[in-house]
Amino acid sequence: QSALTQPASVSGSPGQSITISCTGTSSDVGGYNYVSWYQQHPGKAPKLMIYDVSNRPSGVSNRFSGSKSGNTASLTISGLQAEDEADYYCSSYTSSSTLAVFGGGTKLTVL
Amino acid sequence: QVQLQESGPGLVKPSETLSLTCAVSGYSISSGYYWGWIRQPPGKGLEWIGSIYHSGSTYYNPSLKSRVTISVDTSKNQFSLKLSSVTAADTAVYYCARAQGGYLFDYWGQGTLVTVSS
User: CA A50 to CA A68: how far, in whole Å?
Assistant: First the structure.
């Protein structure tokens, strides 16, 4: 079971938009609309931000959006704010005799 | 509001078995859903360990499958993790979470650090 591939880091200035990619295979990201994204601040538990590719849980800002094309999913954060600085992880359902696989994580720095 | 709380020893000796429990409040485990364990080594990313359905069906990460057992106790509204033959590589923060469909983690515990050391 291989982890999904994410860039190690991304950065942006306040007010700008950034996109984090998450690349998998046809057995996970590409095969199902079951990609989710999590935000994790230092020392805290992860928080669900996006589920089923593009849906936001109640209470999550509409500045966060998700999409997918082929085997790659993306998380876009618009109108960057200082509080968005955190680690972001993608995850997907996988059919390879297991249920879940995570990406390696992306550190977002707000300049 | 669903709340989860991990508990267990913070220090385990190499070759021994790591045992953690996750107490759930605000929702009855027997009502449904999967429940899962995820870990995070210091400074590293998240790793899915496994998920269990309320009825007891389990799914495990293939890389850990030979050493992992996840069980559920509906009478106590809790589920547990056992990881055998631990090494220093198993040192991590261990999280429990509600796992919709086994793969979508919508409620998380605060996490508990388990260190493997003699």
Answer: 12
B52 within 8 A of B36, measured Cβ to Cβ: yes
Select the residue of B47, B101, B105 nearest A48 (Cβ to Cβ): B105
pLDDT tens-digit map of A53-81? 999 999 999 999 999 999 999 999 999 99
Contact A86, A75 (CB under 8 A): no
A52 CB neighbours in chain B (<8 A) are 104
C-alpha span between A101 and A52 (Å, rounded): 14
CB-neighbour burial class of residue B34 (10 A; exposed 0-12, middle 13-18, buried 19+):
buried
DSSP assignment string, A52-88: TTTBPPTT--TTEEEEEETTEEEEEE-S--GGG-EEE
Beta bridge partners of A4: A103
Give the 3-state secondary structure of residue B49. Answer: strand
Q: Do B48 and A100 lie within an 8 Å CB cutoff?
A: yes
User: Can you tell me the distance from the alpha carbon of B94 to that of B115, in angstroms, rounded to the nearest whole number?
Assistant: 10
